[in-house]
Amino acid sequence: MASLSIRKLDKTAYEQLRIRAAHHAVSMEEEARRIIYQAVAIPDSISGIFRKHFGTKNGVDSLKMHDPHLPHEPMSFDK
């Protein structure tokens, strides 16, 4: 596991982190870890985001996700 030291954190940010950690009943270190995980997390997929916020009623399950590793269909200029 990696370690991280944060220097030059102002008093206000430190106190807000302390209060937030107390509110969640965890240590300041755990609260900072949770904040970092949330900040750098990559969403599962756009459909996952829609499902989380809107449910599956709106046809989210029927959306087709493009595989970014496959080439796209070439554009046609024929009429």
Polypeptide structure, described:
The protein has 79 residues and is an all-alpha fold. It has a domain at 11-58. It has 3 helices and no strands. The protein has helices at 11-23, 28-40, 46-54. Helix 1 (11-23) crosses helix 2 (28-40). The longest helix is centred in the first third of the chain and has 13 residues, at 11-23. The radius of gyration is 21 Å and the shape is elongated. The model has no long low-confidence stretch (mean pLDDT 82).
Task: List its traits.
79 residues; elongated; 44% helix; 3 helices; mainly alpha
The radius of gyration over CA amounts to 21 Å
Q: What portion of residues belong to β-strands?
A: under 5%
Quantity of strands, as a count: 0
Low-confidence stretches: none
Q: What is the helical fraction, as a range of percent?
A: 40-55%
User: What's the helix-strand series?
Assistant: HHH
| Category by helix and strand content | mainly alpha
Shape: elongated
Distance between the ends: 58 Å
Query: What's the helix count?
Result: 3
**Mean pLDDT over all positions:** 82
Largest sheet, in brief, is:
none
